[in-house]
Amino acid sequence: MTNDSLISIHDLKVYFRSNSEHARAVDGVSFEVRREETICLVGESGCGKTVSALSILGLIPTPPGEIAGGQILFADQNLLELNEADMQKIRGNHIAMVFQEPLTSLNPVFTIGDQIGEAISIHKKLEAEAVRENCIQLLTDVGISSPAQRLKDYPHQLSGGQRQRVMIAMALACDPDLIIADEPTTALDVTVQAQILQLFRSIQKIRSMSVLYITHDLGVVANIADRVYVMYAGIITEHGNTAQIFHDARHPYTQGLLASLPSRSKRGTRLHSIPGAVPNPAHKPGGCPFHPRCPYAIPTCSKEYPQMCDYGQGHLARCPVLFEGGG
Amino acid sequence: MESVRRQNHIILGVQSLKKYFSIRRGFFQRVAGWVKAVDGVSFEIEQGKTLGLVGESGCGKTTVARLILKLLEPDEGKIIFQGSDISEFTEKDMKPHRKEIQIVFQDPFGSLNPRMTIGLSIEEGLRILGIKSGRSRKERLEKLLKMVGMSPDSADRYPHEFSGGQRQRICIARALSVDPSLVICDEPISALDVSIQAQIINLLKDLQDRLGLSYLFISHDLNVVGYLCNTIYVMYKGQIMESAPAEELFENPCHPYTMSLLSAILDPEPGKRQKMKLLEPDLSDSLITSAGCNFQGRCPIEEPRCRKEEISFEKVGEKHIVRCWKVAEK
Amino acid sequence: MMNIEEKTFNQDFQFQVPLAPKQTRLQAFWFLFKQNRLAIVGLFIFILFFCSALIGLFLTSGPEPIFDPAMIRLQEKLRPPLAKPNLDSLRPEEVPTLDFYLMGTDDLGRDVFARMLQGAWVSLTVGFVAVGIAVLIGIFMGGIAGYFGQYHIKIDHILLTFILVSGAGLVAVKLIHFGALLLLLGLGHILYSILTKKRSREKAVSSWSAFLSKNAVSVDTLIMRIVDIMLCFPSFFLILTVVALLPASIYNIMIVIGLTSWMGTTRFVRAEFLSLREQDFVAAVKALGVSNFRIIFRHMMPNAVAPVLVSATIGIATAILTEAGLSFLGFGVPPPHATWGNILSDGKRFIFDAPWLTFIPGIAILIVVLSFNLFGEGLRDTLNPRLRERH
To answer: Model's pTM, two decimal places?
Structure first.
C-alpha cells in the first residue's frame, strides 16, 4: 500500500491434512506490518493467528501442513518462494520470534550466556569477548538486573518473567526489523505481564522496529497495539486502529467479544455472551464462519462469503449485513 | 430464599489454616527447609455469597482449595463447615460431608476421565447420593445436563468429543450432581476462549441464584473477581495480604501488593494505557520465606522494620483488613 | 418467573454445536490401528494361531483323536513332508487322517502335523496363563505402590510379619509346638492392638512403643525394591532351578514363568498410577466421596491398562519362547506330550537327515513370536495418546 510497509501478506492460505480431515487453518488472510508500528492479531484458539505467524518464518511443518496459496512479501521478495538456506538468513537477522512458553523455548542444558551468544554469533562474526559484551548489553536492554552474573545461569534458575526477558533478548540479538511475539505473556502472572508489555513498548520505540503481537487478550491489545486485525476461524473479520476497534467496532464478533469482557463496572448486570462454541477448523460453517453465533445473521450469511466493507480511515469489517443496515 | 441470604449465615469458616511442605535434601533426606504454602489463612464464606481468592501463581490458593476439600491434611488451623470442624475428621467421618463441598478445576481437559462417558462421570455423584434405580438416575442426569446448558443426548459421549467450554459445563454438572452447598471454583475460566468465558461466568451466576450456592472463587484475574465476588481476599506467598468487600477493595486498596495488582489490570480502553509502578522483579527464592513481611524485596514502600517484625493485620474499615503496618500510620 | 429464568438459562447455548458423528472408542481405535500394516499382519497371524491351537486341541485329544500325535509307526519314520504313507505296511488305524504326512514324520514315525497341533495348544496356554498370572500380580503390586505408596510400614508391622511367617514356617517343618506358640503370639498382638486402637490416639509414649511405631519404609519403596531384587536374577536360570526342584508339569511351568515375569507390569502400572493420581479428575471423584476401591478400579485402572496390554502382548511372546527353551533343554512338559520346544529338541539329532523336524517348529515359533511382537507394537502406537489428535 504505502512504501513504509515492511511486510505484507496477501491472501495466505494454510491447510492441514490429517487422516481424512482437512482443516483450513488460515483461509485467505491478508495483512501488512508497517515500519515502526505494533500490530496485533487477536483471536481465539484455532483461529489461525499462530499459523499465520509461523508461515511468515516458514516454520509450518509440511506435511501435515501445506501452504495452499498467497504471498508473503518482505523486502521485495516472496518469502514463500525462498529456499531453506535463504530463509535461514531472514530468520533472526530480519525477523525474530518470541514464543509463549518461556520454559520450553530455552534449552535447559545451556547457560543463558551460551544461548544468547549463539544467537548473536550465527548472524554476526564477532570475537568471544565482543559477543559477551553484546550479551550483557542485550540483557541490560531487556531489564535484567546484574546481567554479567545472569549469563552463567541456567534457565531453571530464572523466574518465568526473567526467562521471557531472555527470550526477547535473544530475539533482539541481531537487531531484527520485525519481532513476532506469539502470546508472550499468557503463561505469566499479571504483574509480570504488565512489565513485559512495557518492555515491548519501550524496545519498539528505542530500536524503531515493528512488532507483530499475537494474543487472545483484548486488554493486552488495548495496551500495546497501534493497529489491530481481528481473526475468526481462519479469516480476518475486522481491521482498524486501536481506537476504531475498541470504540467503534463494526463486526458483530468484535462487538460480542468486547461486550462479554467481565469488569468491576459491570457488577450486578448480566454479561453479554456470544452463544455457541469456537468452530473446529476442520468443520467450519459455510458462508460467513461466524453466522451460527451471530445475532444479526440473515439467510444469505450461511451461503455467501462476506466481503470486506470499508468504513473509511482504514477501518474494515467483514460484515455486509451491518454495513448496509447501518449505512 | 432472600430471607435466608439476609441472615448472613456463615457456611465455611477457615481459621489460621497452615500447610507447610518440607524440602528434603541430601542422602539422608534431611529436612532442609519448609515451603509455607499456606501460612495462617483465615476467612469466612457466607451462605449464597461468592468469596474471591486472588493471587499470582504459587501463592498457595490452590493448596487452600485442596485443604478445604480434605485432599490434603492441614498442619494447623480449623476448617469449620456448617458448624463442625472438619479439619480433624478422618476419612470415615468425612464421608457424609464430602458431597457438600465440590470443586470445578481449571483444566477442562484433565478434569474428566477420558475413558468414561460423561453420563457415567456425572452418575458417579448420583450413586453417592444413593439414587439406586437406573431410571431416576437417568432423569436426574438429564436434568443436570439441561441445567448447565447441555443437550441430554450428549450423555453417552466421551470427553474428547467436547470443546473446552462444554467440558467445563460438564464438570459443573458433575459437581452439582451431589447437591453441594459450597462449590470451589479453581480458575474455572482461565483456560477457556474469551467468547466462552462469559458463558461460564453467566452460568455460575445463574446457578447461584437458583440453587443458593456459595462459591469460593479462586482466580488471578481481577476483572473477573471484581465482577463476580462479594468479598475479595488477596493472597501472597501463603498469607492473606488484604481483604475487603469487592467495591471497597477497588476503591480503596491499602496494601502495596494489592495496588500493584490493580495497576496491572489491563483495561480494554486504548486511551488509558496503564502506567504502573513496576514491581522489582522477584529475585529471591520465591517459595522459602524469611522473617518479617512476605512482600519484602518487592515492596515500593519498604522500611527496615518490615524485615524484622511479624506483620499483623490492621483494621482499615468495617470488614477491611490489611497486613501492613504503614497503613495504620497514614 | 421460573419460565423467564428457564429461558435466560439456556440462552447461552441455544445454538447447539453439531457434534462430530458418533464414533465409539473401538471404531476410533480400529481406524488408527488398520493404518499399521505390519500390526494387521501380526493380528491376522495371532488369530490364525489362536484358532489352530483351539481346533488342534479338539483334533488331538480324547480317546480316539482325529490326529493322533502319539501314534507310533516305526516303519514310517523320518518321512519327509507331503510324503504318501506306505499303505501296505500300516494297519488301518495307523493310516494318517489326511492320507499323507503334511509335515512328515519324526524318528518314531509320529505325525509331525499332529504333534505341532498339540504343541500349539501348549504354547498358547503357557503364553496366556503365564502372562495372565504376571499381569494380575503386576497390576496388584503396581496399583498398591502407585496409589498407597506414600503410606509407611511401621517397625512393629515388620516384626509382626516376621513372627507370623516364621511361626508358620516352623509349623510347616513339623516343629509344631514352637511354631504354634509364635503364631499365637502374633495373633494375640493383632487382637490386642484392635482392642486398644481407640486409646492409641492419646499418646502413651514409652521409648519402646515409640520405636515400634517408627516409620520404617514406605510401601512404594518396599515394593519397588522387591521388584529390583527380582530383576537381579537371570530369570531363565531361576526358572530352570525351580523347575528342576518341582515335578515337571505344564502347570508348574506356567506358574513359574508367571511368578518371575510380573516386574515389568508392576513398574508400568505404578508409573501410570503416580501420574493419574495427580490428575484433576481423580481429585474430583474423590471430592464426590467415591471410595478408594472404586477410584482405583473404576476410574484409574481403565486409564492404566493400555501400556499393560502392550507389555502383556509382548510378554506372551517371551513366555512362549521361554517354554520352548525349557522344553528344548528337557525341563519342560514331559514327553510323550508334544510341545514345539521338544519337537525341536528331538529333531536336532536328525538335522541333516530330516531337517523339517527342526525347521517346522523353529519357523512356527519364529512366526508366532514375531506376530505377537508386531501386534504389540502396533497396539502401543495406536494407544499412545500423543499419536492421537486432541480436539
So the answer is: 0.82
